[in-house]
């Protein structure tokens, strides 16, 4: 039977930065904690959903207080877009909504599917490298749109 000093899983984060913010917030409140999968997710961010993200652990006796601290003021899950870092071909930094599902969880970047025309496909074959345009990608439904 687990005792008050046993280690329990508390929360999972998609980004290592958000997990470190939560860890720092708990340590500032005097609650000892640690993270797992931080280096794996930092090096290979695509593995984050497979591994369960960056996981935060605390002692059993501190779990309720830690949840209260984390849920009192939620840890931001992502940073706001930096207007100066946008490329010249990037659209307005105000994130639009997905036309299919209405989610605002979208990002601008290289298309993940073959969304190019005839000349781009010829160039891709000649270069042996996929030439893809930039599109918005919805992380909720997987839709890509301009």
TrEMBL record:
<dbReference type="Pfam" id="PF09413">
    <property type="entry name" value="DUF2007"/>
</dbReference>
<dbReference type="InterPro" id="IPR011322">
    <property type="entry name" value="N-reg_PII-like_a/b"/>
</dbReference>
<protein>
    <submittedName>
        <fullName>DUF2007 domain-containing protein</fullName>
    </submittedName>
</protein>
<feature type="domain" description="DUF2007">
    <location>
        <begin position="15"/>
        <end position="71"/>
    </location>
</feature>
<dbReference type="InterPro" id="IPR018551">
    <property type="entry name" value="DUF2007"/>
</dbReference>
């Amino acid at each position: 039977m687990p005792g008050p000093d046993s280690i329990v899983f508390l929360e999972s984060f998609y980004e290592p930065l958000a997990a470190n913010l939560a860890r720092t917030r708990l340590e500032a409140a005097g609650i000892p904690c640690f993270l797992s999968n931080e280096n794996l997710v930092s090096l290979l961010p695509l593995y984050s959903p497979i591994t369960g993200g960056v996981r935060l652990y605390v002692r059993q006796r501190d779990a309720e207080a830690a949840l209260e601290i984390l849920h009192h003021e939620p840890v931001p899950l992502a940073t706001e877009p930096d207007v100066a870092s946008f490329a010249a071909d990037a659209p307005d930094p105000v994130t639009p909504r997905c036309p299919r599902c209405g989610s605002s969880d979208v990002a601008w970047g290289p298309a993940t599917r073959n969304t190019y025309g005839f000349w781009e496909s010829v160039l891709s074959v000649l270069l042996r490298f996929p030439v893809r345009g930039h599109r918005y990608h919805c992380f909720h439904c997987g839709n890509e749109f301009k």
